[in-house]
Structure formats: structure tokens, C-alpha cells
Amino acid sequence: MKNELTFDELALIAGGHTAFQLLWSGIQLGLFDFLSRNPGKTKGEISKEIGLEPQPTRILLVGLATLRLIEKEGDYYKNSAIVNQLLVSDNPENMINVLGWQHYIVYPGEMDFLESLQANSNVGLRHFKGNEDNLYARLSHEPKLEKIFHNAMSSLSNSANKLLASSVNFNDIHHLVDAGGGDGTNAITLAKANPDLKLTIFDAPSVCNRAKQNITKENLSDRVNTYPGNFFETDFPPNIDAILFGHMMTIWSPQKDTSLLRKAYEALPKGGKVIIFNMMANDDDIGPMATALGSPYFLSIATGEGMMYSWSDYEKFLANAGFKKTQRTELPRNHGVLIGIK
Fold first, then answer.
1. How far apart are CA 131 and CA 160, in angstroms?
2. What is the C-alpha separation between 186 and 170, in angstroms, rounded?
3. Which residue in 105, 178, 235, 273 has its CB near the most CB atoms, within 10 A?
4. Domain around 73
5. Rg value, the chain, Cα
6. Smallest Cα–Cα separation from 247: which of 148, 139, 150, 123?
7. For 264-311, how does the pLDDT look when each residue is reduced to its tens digit (9 = 90+)?
């Protein structure tokens, strides 16, 4: 029998917003950075370093220690191992930008999650300037939020793309289109790992401009190009033999995903591949946790129609688009690669 939910676990769920605020405050006050450099500090030393009075310092430390983000031994505090890995600013693996996206974009919009469920629409989009029907278009009206969003997506890509580069054999692929390739993080990682691979980033004009700058910085302009457009409306580039959808298909409905995959199928030659790279939900619709907590964002804010889909969902989309053969590859951090072959 599965372990039943405990009172403390229920309390953590019910107080999830408070738990996040404790975490975010530890980052913003520089506490985790300080304890990374100086483990074993007292409450008084911490209070002086982060600029808080004793009572607020105690409240913060009690919360963080109870959440096991920091460890208390006698009168001395230090970071937990996972905090040193993921929440310290000078660690290249840190996820601080992702938490910024949560703080400034996800939390405000998900205040309307209940209404979004009832309306089957992204009601939480009302918190962002503009009249467009999705978050990605509205962010262009708020440069600060747009930068926060793209920094977060780049951070997610940096940690995940190493998994993609090491798990997929690109030797038989000559020209790969990165559909929705963003600022070029995906393409740059793959180009460095595969010196014979040509890549084209297919995204909105403003995003392609940002990608061009990053490509130039990496001296990869001879192998990585951009192709501005809307891949629901614009034809895919010519002379391609693979299309990558990395962290993209969670955005749209099953109908739109299937339509987009059918368009990709028609653009590919026989033997061409479509590569779906994403966090994958389990086929039984229970977990993993990251996918369970990710889906509400797509409903209540992003587009009002997507979610974290399961392996079997994507296999159904691919089959309905015409792909007869698929390959699953499970990866760490709840990620996976699903390849459809024409």
C-alpha cells in the first residue's frame, strides 16, 4: 500500500506559497551565497551579514531549517547539499533565474488557477500587459519580464540540453531545425557537441535577433542560422532532415500539437526525424512531481490549452501525424526524448 499523506506534508502543500517566499528571501538576501562561502555561522553573524534585525532573522532561519534548505548543528548553520548545488549564484548549475520566473510570472498568474479551470482558459493572463491571447506575445510589452522569462528558459535549457546532446545520436542528421529555439541555447549546445551538424533556429523575429547575437558570440555563424516566422503559418526551412521540439509541445492543445507534427512530417524526407524533448509525465497520470506542478502554468497563464503531456500522449500525437516508428529514451530530472521517424 502506498504511504498516506502526513499532516506535515499536507501543511507544506497548504503553505506552499510561504515556503517559496522563505526560499526566495534566502536567495535575495544573499544568505545561501554567504553560507556557501562561510559554513558554520551563528544567527548573530548571519543577521549582521544579511542586514536583518534578530527577530526577522530568526523567523527566516527557523523556516529554512524546517524546510531542510539549511542545516542547524548546535548554534551553527550551513547550507544543505542541494542548496549549494542549485541555489548559490556562482554555481553554473544554479536555478535562481528559474525561481525568478516563478516569483514574477508564475505566482501572480496562478492566483487565477481556479477561475482558469472553470473557464478552461488562461484567466491569469490578465496580470500581464497587452491584448494578445498568450503570455509569450504579451511579454514583448514588458521588457523586464521578458528578460526574466528568457533568462529562466535559458537556465532550464542549459541544464537539460547536456542531457539531449549526450543521449541522441546526431551522426545521421545533417540539417536540424530547432523549432522555437529561443535565444539559441539549444542550438549552440548541440553545435558544439556535433561539429558536422548544421542548425537553424525557427522562432519569432525578435527572438531570432537575440539568438543571432549569441550565435555570433560563440563564433558559430557558419553552422547555426536563424529563420524568423511562425511555425504554425510559415513553411519549415528547405533541405532539412530533422526537426527538434525542445520544451515546446507542452504549450499547445493535443489538436495543435498533432497539426504541427503533421506539418513537420510533410516537411521531412523519408527517414527524417522529429525529436520531442521535454519533461515527461508518467503514462498512469500520477507524477512525477515536476510535471504535476508544471501543468497549471500552461492552463492558467501561458496559453490556456497546454499541459505536461505523458509519453503515451506524444506517441499518439506522432502516430496521428503519420509517424510509424517511435523511440523512447528516458533521461534524468524527469526528462525524456521521443523520436518519430518518417
1. 33
2. 14
3. 178
4. 7-86
5. 22
6. 150
7. 999 999 999 999 999 999 999 999 998 899 999 999 999 999 999 999
